[in-house]
Amino acid sequence: QVQLVESGGGLVQAGGSLRLSCAASGRTFRMNTLAWFRQAPGKEREFVAVINWSGGITYYDDSVKGRFTISRDSAKTMVYLQMNSLKSEDTAVYYCAATGPVAAGRVRRVGSYDYWGQGTQVTVSS
């Protein structure tokens, strides 16, 4: 099993920044792909960003490209999401997700991920 715990959420004004963290523990050798998703009230969970655990390759949803940065530490126990220039539409619960290797065409799918954190709330006030 793999355990994921998110932290770093909070209330921020539009234009501000937050850094989310995701701590991974357990059988992390099973992980190859780590991603951030978010879910706003009344909406489906949606893809935000993904990083390849071994090579550090990243991919972003167009809505956050240029504003958000996903990264991981060298020990491969932490994944981060640096969020800049936040907008009110970024308000959501943010989830960290992990799985083994994923085909490029499937990284955006919720069903592609085996492990999920409990989520952390991000609220952006306008």
Description:
By secondary structure, the protein is mostly beta strands. The protein is 0% helix and 50% strand. The chain contains no helices and eleven strands. The strands form two sheets. Strands 2, 4, 5, 6, 9, 10 and 11 form a seven-stranded mixed beta sheet that branches. The protein is globular, with a radius of gyration of 13 Å. The N and C termini lie far apart (40 Å).
What are the main properties of this structure?
7-stranded mixed sheet, globular, mainly beta, single chain, 126 residues, 4-stranded antiparallel sheet
Distance between the termini: 40 Å
Radius of gyration: 13 Å
Note the total helix count: 0
Low-confidence stretches: none
Overall shape: it is globular
Tell me, rounded to a whole number, the average pLDDT: 95
**Class inferred from helices and paired strands:** mainly beta
SS strand fraction: over 45%
Strand element count: 11
Along the chain, the helix and strand elements come as EEEEEEEEEEE
Task: Sketch the major β-sheet.
Answer: 7 strands, mixed
What's a concise summary of this model?
With about 130 residues, this protein is mainly β. The protein has strands spanning about 1-5, 10-15, 20-25, 35-40, 45-50, 60, 70, 80-85, 90-100, 115, 120-125.
List the helices and strands and how they pair.
Layout: E1 2-7, E2 10-13, E3 18-26, E4 33-39, E5 46-52, E6 58-60, E7 68-72, E8 78-83, E9 92-99, E10 115-116, E11 120-125
Parallel strand pairs: 2-11
Antiparallel strand pairs: 1-3, 3-8, 4-5, 4-9, 5-6, 7-8, 9-10, 9-11
